[in-house]
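Figure 6 in text form: structure in, sequence out.
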């Protein structure tokens, strides 16, 4: 009787997990035509009540073991390594940068370690402005250059105020190497990957990594341009790490539940947030969730972990931006809360919105630019400033891009006008050419 009960319980658990996985897969299925059109793929991992399930959408069969660059999510690992040094007594958060690094042009040596961790330094951005150009160039001269000599002029008025800047964490990586006399990459392996049993995680991306997700940019495979130096030398301690959804799940379990990486007091400091909801290399989101996403050329990643109930949402894409990221985020939070999604896409979008195609003029809020709605491969796209994003429709007379929050509503009184909305901005754009 006990054996029968055990068998029935096991079968019930398998059926429940299968149903849970199928539900998540069904939820993502409606995105397939659009993500396939973009030649991208996404993978999602959800962990709730001890159950973990993954699903994917798009042109690639990604899963929990697919390797990808986590981008700026690397920063929380850099912060953890520094907090470990604090625990050892070799460093204080109140220490000045100048205590560890020799004078650097455009860098205020009196800035504290904590100021850099919180992005309150006012430093100029060394990474980001020309990263696309450098990625494609693969210049030996560029990658062998001393990047610290290229830090732009700082803004002293910004000190003490939050402004996200990769330079902060690149400098912190050098501080770690100075005080430990070890490479930053060796520290990641020794103090984070190995203790957390993250067997498919790497200090930086290399085209030779097993199960590496194919990177894409502007719908093109850019694998041939991959150069480990772009991640190791350029992104460095601000965005170099490669990992998997399954390994990140282990990371969060070891960090918050098993306390493998930090003591309770250090963990509290790590998650003490400022007015911008930024802690020491980690962000605070709604409903008690924390995490740190990242974007890089060829990869994008988002994570949401709840320390109270251990719920976890992870998703990545093999492109610089996660397609429909805002819509997916809302749906995944609804999913983990047990809410049934009601979002459905208009499959007749091209015919229903054929009269709004054309070129429009945006002339508002001190900006003036051309925008265009075009048809391609039986999909509608919105193009502006050299970027082209796919559009969907979930409501009558409204077009929407789920990645950047652009909403376009047809003016019922004038077919040549669209109401443009994005991140609280609202204005009318007028058609200048059909």
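Output sequence:
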């Amino acid at each position: 009787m006990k054996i029968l009960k055990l068998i029935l319980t096991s079968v019930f658990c398998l059926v429940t997990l299968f149903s849970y996985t199928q539900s998540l897969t069904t939820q993502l299925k409606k995105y397939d035509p659009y993500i396939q059109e973009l030649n991208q793929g996404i993978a999602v991992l959800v962990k709730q009540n001890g159950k973990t399930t993954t699903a994917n959408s798009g042109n690639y069969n990604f899963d929990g073991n697919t390797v990808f660059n986590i981008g700026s999510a690397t920063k929380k690992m850099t912060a953890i390594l520094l907090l470990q040094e604090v625990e050892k007594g070799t460093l204080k958060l109140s220490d000045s940068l100048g205590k560890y690094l020799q004078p650097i042009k455009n860098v205020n040596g009196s800035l504290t370690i904590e100021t850099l961790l919180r992005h309150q330094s006012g430093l100029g951005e060394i990474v980001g402005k020309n990263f696309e150009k450098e990625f494609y160039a693969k210049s030996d001269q560029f990658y062998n250059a001393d990047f610290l000599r290229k830090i732009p002029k700082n803004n002293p008025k910004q000190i003490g105020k939050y402004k996200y800047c990769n330079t902060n964490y690149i400098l912190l990586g050098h501080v770690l190497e100075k005080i430990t006399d070890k490479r930053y990459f060796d520290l990641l392996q020794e103090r984070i990957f190995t203790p957390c049993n993250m067997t498919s995680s790497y200090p930086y991306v290399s085209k030779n990594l097993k199960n590496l997700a194919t990177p894409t940019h502007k719908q093109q495979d850019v694998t041939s341009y991959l150069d480990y130096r772009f991640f190791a030398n350029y992104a460095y301690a601000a965005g170099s790490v490669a990992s998997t959804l399954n390994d990140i799940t282990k990371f969060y379990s070891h960090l918050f539940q098993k306390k493998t990486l930090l003591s309770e007091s250090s963990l509290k400091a790590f998650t003490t947030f400022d007015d911008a909801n930024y802690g020491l290399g980690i962000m605070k989101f709604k409903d008690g969730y924390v995490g740190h996403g990242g974007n890089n050329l060829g990869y994008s990643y988002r994570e949401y972990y709840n320390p109270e109930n251990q719920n976890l949402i992870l998703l990545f894409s093999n492109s610089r931006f996660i397609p429909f990221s805002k819509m997916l985020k809302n749906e995944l939070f609804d999913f983990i809360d047990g809410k049934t999604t009601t979002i459905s896409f208009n499959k007749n979008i091209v015919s229903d919105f054929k009269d709004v195609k054309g070129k429009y003029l945006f002339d508002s809020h001190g900006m003036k630019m051309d925008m265009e709605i075009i048809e391609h491969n039986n999909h509608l796209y919105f193009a502006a400033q050299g970027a082209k994003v796919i559009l969907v429709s979930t409501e009558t007379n409204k077009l929407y891009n789920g990645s950047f929050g652009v909403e376009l509503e047809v003016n019922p009184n004038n077919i040549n006008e669209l109401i443009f909305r994005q991140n609280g901005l609202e204005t009318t754009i007028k058609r200048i050419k059909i």
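Caption detail: The chain has two domains: 68-336, 349-433.
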